[in-house]
Automatic annotation (TrEMBL):
Glycosyl hydrolase 94 supersandwich domain sequence ranges: 74-289
Domain Glycoside hydrolase family 65 C-terminal: 720-753
Gene3D superfamilies for this protein: 1.50.10.10, Glycoside hydrolase, family 65, N-terminal domain (2.70.98.40), Maltose phosphorylase, domain 3 (2.60.420.10)
Transmembrane portions of the chain: none
Protein name: NdvB protein
Entry superkingdom: Bacteria
Keywords carried by this UniProt record: Glycosyltransferase, Transferase
SUPFAM superfamilies reported in the protein's UniProt record: Galactose mutarotase-like, Six-hairpin glycosidases
Amino acid sequence: MIRPSEDNQYYELHSPTAMPKASGFLWNENMMIHMNCRGYAVSQFMQPEPSKYSHAPNLEAKTFMQPEQPYYAHHPGRFVYIKDEESGGLFSAPYEPVRVLPERYTFFAGKHDIKWLVQHDGIAVEMKLGLSKNDPFELWTVKVANQGRAKRKISVYPYYTVGYMSWMNQSGQYHEELQSIVCSSITPYQKYKEYDKIKHLNDKTFLLADKAPTAWEVNQEVFEGEGGIGNPSALEGDTLSGSDARYEMPVCVMQYKLELEPGDETELRFIFGAARTEEDIAAIRRKYFQPGTGGSDGFAEAEAEYAAYVREGEGCLEIDTPDKALDNFANHWLPRQMYYHGRTNRLTTDPQTRNYLQDNMGMSYMAPELAREAFLTALSQQNASGAMPDGIILHKDAELKYINQVPHTDHCVWLPVCLVTYLDETDDYSLLEEKVAFADSPELATVSRHIDLAMEWLLKTRDERGLNYIEQGDWCDPMNMVGYKGKGVSGWLTMASGYAFRVWGDICQNCGRMEEAALYRQRAEETNEIVNRYLWDGNWYARGITDDNVPFGISSDKEGKVFINPQGWSLMCGAADEQKKAKLMQAVTEHLESPYGVEKLGPPYTAMREDVGRVTQKHPGTAENGAVYNHAAAFYIYALYLADEKDHAFDLLRRMIPGPDQEDLERRGQLPVFIPNYYRGAYRQIPRTAGRSSHLFNTGTVPWVYRILVDGLFGLKGERNGLRVAPRLPSDWSGVSVKRSFRGAELNVSIKRYKGIAAQEVYVDGELAEDGLLAHLETGKHYEVLVKIPG
Ligand code: CEZ
């Protein structure tokens, strides 16, 4: 059984083997931990670049967070071995590494903590992982209880992976006075200039205990002996040997010998994470484990502070629909995931510009003051030419890394596309008047002027036909060889520019810049003509045209025939008329829709296409090569709502969330506590793996799904003069209730079908609202809104 807990604070899973990769994640201002149900963990903290304190057993590559990370026996983990001192029986909680199937098992993926309850052989083990609001370490509570009728003598061994810390220097030992295992290392470097940076790093990994252990082990090899991690030799002895690690791989294991009468329970608390010095660890110990004046409990206070921090990430919608699983996801997990993105910038110091802008589009719904700051930060890094950089630098020591060193041409598009959500939500048009400098010029210009320049840049970087150059990529990062010779163009980007002009034109109109409004709307119209002249392939739109003037994403292609992005965005920019719309939707259904959502392209490429690029080299059905890439799927769904295709849109939206039936959950392999960046696609070619989650919870999908709910499904979108009500419920819903917070007002909206009415009618506190516009809403007030829809 997989279900939400009664208070909706957790999602529960009752087997460690049904969905072995099922997981939850926690983050704070400085770290993130992705915890799977069997006890494996991926954690990292910022200093300011992402770093680890719990490593793999071999040299790990430093890279961005990866989808479909493999787990293996020595994968970093957090486990508790339990040994019966009399019978010698051994098991481990939550499940790894001993892999004895417990009699009862529950994994609770929570919002502000992650828990397990494991019962085996008369012993109950409760494990809880929490975080503090700021510190780079984990707060663990382990409770062990005797559930049987006889007294039990057991040893409890908490195990925390330290792994291969450094090829230059690594060691570890137990410190009596700290009641802590402290492992030390030096972050490897070679250029002397780096010394200045590395000398300040938190290079120690520590495990701090609130109760003194009976014994400990700090040497991975000694601990495992010949038995290996699944049956460590060290557990055969009476007590752990207490050895240290001297340029040997460290581990943090402690032993607690317990004698438990029936019903007895022992609680142990641990802190595991990164620190710089022993003094720091001593201070952590004082703060968290030594009662303050009046007996205050630093550990519990930190947990409570963290819970409050997570609760701040509230959305502006609370929904009650016939679809309870959707309600659970939209009310509890979706805003949380969106908040995670906005607060952490995906744990990078140089987020990709488009990601940064879209993540802050999401923040417009929950922390608009942060979104405002972010838009200003992004614009301050724009060039005077109008060009936006590939990444936004968020720390003085940060530099553009990885994909941000590859020129992509779409970043300007996201400015109006994301900003409009902020404006709709807040009506803060004063932002457009703020003055900001440029990356390459101290000259101050208003936000409006900056965005004009961005639009002009998109108009300048077009070929003689009026199609936008792609260089080494657009939204699709790995589409790197369509235009690297300087000629190839992106069909999608041309449409997206058209859409950006249209949105920007509307914004200009709203703030009285009538000339600009007319100009950008005209550019949008012209762009649509260009799109239809060069990109329509008869039944759908092409993805682009290569350096050698070869259109691709067209019917004569064997692979990569249809791409989702140009289809959806042609609806958004208004290029597709009714006839084209019907045809392209038909093509999408035929070539790209699957039970797990709509695929990004199809059929997936099976071999390198040198005039398209490395996207074609990704495994078929993964990531951008034909997975159900949820970010792209969300664009399409948003477009379907704009095009008033409400049933189709809802159907695809629903497929984005794992479940609700068990079979679907197991196939995805993921709990519905986040939307992953993709589900495996290639449904028609490789059905065996289709639907499988990537488990990567960094994705631009979430703000778009939120926007789909606000603007599309529930139709409660802000505009200059108030809130426009225009719900687009699926036909088989008779009604819903929605709580909507909007500019400080609280609205209880009830949307119901009524027989005998021809068009929607909206009443606010009993009064008819013309055109469904709720104007004059006041901050701090409550409103009852009744929406009658025909049905
Ligand atoms: O990264 C995402 C980007 O963060 O891919 C999206 C893009 O729009 C986002 O901005 C689509 O390409 O370089 C690679 O091949 C990576 O696979 C990235 O494309 C991808 C990763 O999955 C990271 O999330």
